[in-house]
């Protein structure tokens, strides 16, 4: 009989992984790529990143840009940014990007305070973790 409550908890926590509209605010901030899984199953791990992705969004649209973290906790960046719209597609949310050269879509598979998983239409899955600044103090 002790197994029943454990199974019930696993069922409760394991079933619903859909991202809610309220969770989308957690997209804002700095995200570091952790690994990429290609459609053929090949995995590429990223142990050191010289750039991170910065997301900023409000009212279902926003932008994403690459920034370079510096040792003092600041970032080196350019004015280049890729704009996107967030569109609900069934129980999932999608980032729709469009510029003068192309357009593409990424589906938000998972989003919480520490992890982000995006999948594109080619079957490539990107695993991100929230970026933690080094912030080395000069003494």
Shape, per Cα inertia axes: globular
Helical stretch tally: 1
> What's the order of the H and E elements?
HEEEEEEEEEE
| Biggest sheet overview | 8 strands, antiparallel, barrel
Which helices and strands occur, and which strands form pairs?
Layout lengths: L2 H13 L13 E9 L5 E3 L6 E7 L2 E9 L5 E3 L4 E8 L2 E7 L4 E9 L3 E6 L4 E6 L9
Antiparallel strand pairs: 1-2, 1-3, 1-10, 3-4, 4-5, 4-6, 6-7, 7-8, 8-9, 9-10
How would you sum up this structure, described in words?
Mean pLDDT is 87; it is low at 1-16. The chain is mostly beta strands. The radius of gyration is 18 Å and the shape is globular. It has one helix at residues 3-15, and strands at 29-37, 43-45, 52-58, 61-69, 75-77, 82-89, 92-98, 103-111, 115-120, 125-130. It has an eight-stranded antiparallel barrel with strand order 1-3-4-6-7-8-9-10.
